[in-house]
Amino acid sequence: MRNIDLSPLYRSFIGSDQLSSLIESAHRKDNQRAYPPYNIEVLGDDKYRISMALAGFNREQITVEAQGNTLTVRGKQTSSEQANGTKDDADHNTGNVNSEAVTQAETTGNRHSRPSSENTQRKFLHKGISARNFDKTFQLGDHVKVLGAELTNGLLHVDLMRQIPEANKPRRIQIV
């Protein structure tokens, strides 16, 4: 007997219970990758919040765009930041530390000092904070609107609300 986990379907579709739309959004090509990590929180009956962990990004590097039923969040690092932050050392995955680099850090007297110039190539003993470009798309349900976005302490919060038009709301018919 096989168990099928449908939770990835529900993570990317907010505000609708239509199974056909869930399946369609699940088949989209590679736009639902794990980076950057995110949470989808239900704040009330018709209120939602998407929180994305965007360490290393500032407001100018992030765009949030809503078009129709699609919400797209993009992050773009400058080319100098990518060049300084994406080189992997040979011992990156093993956890081994280059003793030369540790000795150099100890002799400087300040282990937390930054490079003197922005153009200086940075070296990492361990690089666990990813700061790469991303393009994350969320499929929104019918009548779900984006209320706003806020970047606080490395977390981007996008608030959403389902606003059903009066014409679509159920109404009680009086029997005479």
Automatic annotation (TrEMBL):
InterPro entries: A-crystallin/Hsp20_dom (IPR002068), ACD_IbpA/B (IPR037913), HSP20-like_chaperone (IPR008978). The keyword Membrane does not apply. The keyword ATP-binding does not apply. Residues 29-176 form the SHSP domain. Keywords: Stress response. Residues 73-122 are annotated as: Disordered. Coiled coil: none annotated. Belongs to the small heat shock protein (HSP20) family. PANTHER family: PTHR47062, SMALL HEAT SHOCK PROTEIN IBPA. This is Molecular chaperone. Residues 73-85, 93-110 have a biased composition (Polar residues).
